[in-house]
Amino acid sequence: MIMNDSAFIKKGFHISTDKSLLNFEMIFKYLDQESYWAGGIPENTLRRAIENSLCFGIYFRNEQAGFARVITDKATFAYICDVFVLTEYKRIGLSKWLVQTILKHNDLQGLRRWSLATADAQGLYTQFGFKQINKPERWMEIFTPYRP
């Protein structure tokens, strides 16, 4: 599925959920070496994660410029993760367009809960209604980092 926004389309960008278009090597390199949240991710782990997620790629003239994954049951819950835009494409609104596209995706309508975690992009996500977790004392986790 290709997502359209005429302003970005005119500039040569598009967003797609077609996994065959994903540049796995670029995604792996970014997440492993440049992200603060997935450093050290094993390649086979990322392959399984992509295989079992709804993935969104941003493309500029058919070269991948950004990425996001949504872990979801497509009925009640979605967790947005691994969101990034490559440095050379930042500050032109692509992250905002990507989040808008994710939230409008047909398979993700009517969900009871959306979730995500971020250390530095609260300003982006609050524009779309995300806020601090209500009743965080109810949330629990097991966290096992890729690198000790």
TrEMBL record:
<protein>
    <submittedName>
        <fullName>GNAT family N-acetyltransferase</fullName>
    </submittedName>
</protein>
<dbReference type="GO" id="GO:0016747">
    <property type="term" value="F:acyltransferase activity, transferring groups other than amino-acyl groups"/>
</dbReference>
<dbReference type="InterPro" id="IPR016181">
    <property type="entry name" value="Acyl_CoA_acyltransferase"/>
</dbReference>
<dbReference type="InterPro" id="IPR053144">
    <property type="entry name" value="Acetyltransferase_Butenolide"/>
</dbReference>
<feature type="domain" description="N-acetyltransferase">
    <location>
        <begin position="13"/>
        <end position="145"/>
    </location>
</feature>
<dbReference type="InterPro" id="IPR000182">
    <property type="entry name" value="GNAT_dom"/>
</dbReference>
<dbReference type="Pfam" id="PF00583">
    <property type="entry name" value="Acetyltransf_1"/>
</dbReference>
<keyword id="KW-0808">Transferase</keyword>
